[in-house]
Amino acid sequence: MRGRIEISSQIAALIFAGIAPGLLAAQAAPTVSLADQLSAQYTMVKMGADSSGPAVIQPGTILVIQKGGILGVPIRI
Predict the structure, then answer these.
(1) CA 23 vs CA 15, 32, 33, 35, 37: distances in Å
(2) What are the beta bridge partners of residue 53?
(3) How far is the CA of 52 from the CAs of 48, 49, 55, 57, in angstroms?
(4) CB distance 45 to 61 below 8 Å
(5) Bigger pLDDT: 29 or 45?
(6) Does residue 76 contact residue 49 with C-beta atoms inside 8 Å?
(7) E strand or H helix at 56, and its extent?
(8) pLDDT digits (tens, 9 = 90+) for 60-73
(9) Cα separation, 20 vs 15, whole angstroms
(10) Residue 52 DSSP one-character state
(11) What is the C-alpha separation between 76 and 43, in angstroms, rounded?
């Protein structure tokens, strides 16, 4: 009986030793903001103004958010 308990505790210790480094690395990873992630993936549109109002100065990706409760406000230049 005592041998089974020792073997079980050794197996549990080995499992924990295999999992613990992964858990610690996941917790220590720096978080990157959503804005930084999007900027890294996509070229942002540069907006400006001309005689008719707001205009695209430099083309890029336009992000369209479709979710209830998010307020969209036109660009002010």
Answers:
(1) 13, 19, 21, 26, 23
(2) 50
(3) 11, 8, 8, 13
(4) yes
(5) 45
(6) no
(7) strand 53-58
(8) 887 777 888 888 77
(9) 9
(10) T
(11) 20
| Pairing assessment for the beta strands 53-58 and 46-50 based on DSSP bridges | antiparallel
In this structure, are residues 62 and 52 in contact, taking their beta carbons and an 8 Å threshold? Answer: no
Closest CA to 45 of 66, 61, 29: 61
Q: For the segment 4-29, what is each residue's pLDDT rounded down to a tens digit?
A: 777 777 777 667 666 766 666 555 55
Task: Residue 47: name the closest of 74, 11, 7 by CA.
Answer: 74
Name the pTM for this structure: 0.40
CB 20 within 8 A of CB 30: no
The pair of structure tokens assigned to 49 is: 């103004």
